[in-house]
Amino acid sequence: VQLVESGGGLLQPGGSLRLTCAASGFTFSNYRMSWYRQGPGKGRELVATITSAGGSTNSADSVKGRFIITRNNIKNTVYLQMNSLHPADQAVYYCYTSYNDGSWGQGTQVTVSS
């Protein structure tokens, strides 16, 4: 199983960013996918989840209305569109699949600072 995140970076408050997670090594379209994040000095928290076919999503209250999770089962990729970023959104963002009792990507850093 391999999950490779990309798209992180440094941006100012109010900016937008799209994270990408490329998956391989399992039947991607069979599994729910999630994004988590871990901010400085904080525990890892669930940001958003999307069902296997992409028909249903869930997101944390702190990002509702700003972040959108989508997936492409042809490209074996899951995305996180992040809008109106706050400094509190600064974190390492991780891709997660429940396949094989759970697998994580290596993470991508998002820094929000003026």
Give a nutshell description of this structure.
This protein is mainly beta and 114 residues long. Helices cover 0% and strands 51% of the residues.
Topology:
Layout: E1 2-6, E2 9-11, E3 17-24, E4 33-38, E5 44-50, E6 57-59, E7 67-72, E8 77-82, E9 91-97, E10 103-104, E11 108-112
Parallel strand pairs: 2-11
Antiparallel strand pairs: 1-3, 3-8, 4-5, 4-9, 5-6, 7-8, 9-10, 9-11
Could you walk me through the main structural features you see in this protein, from its secondary elements to its overall organization?
This protein is an all-beta fold. It is built from no helices and eleven strands. It has strands at residues 2-6, 9-11, 17-24, 33-38, 44-50, 57-59, 67-72, 77-82, 91-97, 103-104, 108-112. The strands form two sheets. Strands 2, 4, 5, 6, 9, 10 and 11 form a seven-stranded mixed beta sheet that branches. The protein has a four-stranded antiparallel beta sheet with strand order 1-3-8-7, with no helix packed on it. A hairpin with a 6-residue loop joins strand 5 and strand 6. It is globular and about 40 Å long. The mean pLDDT is 96.
